[in-house]
């Protein structure tokens, strides 16, 4: 999902109209924190998969000896 500059500006303007200028920074901070947590969880899952595949590779090599 790639957002261009114009699309981001439209989203910000709509946010200003809907939530008002005082609440918008709080929503931005919450969205940023949620995105950060999602990325950490996703990276953790990727790391688990890589570790699992490495362990399978080691097990296969020791089994075939």
TrEMBL record:
Tagged with keyword Membrane: yes
InterPro entries: TatA/B/E
Biased composition (Basic and acidic residues): 52-65
Keywords carried by this UniProt record: Membrane, Protein transport, Translocation, Transmembrane, Transmembrane helix, Transport
Subcellular location: Membrane
Single GO cellular component term: membrane
Annotated TM spans: none
Its membrane topology: Single-pass membrane protein
Protein name per its UniProtKB record: Twin-arginine translocase TatA/TatE family subunit
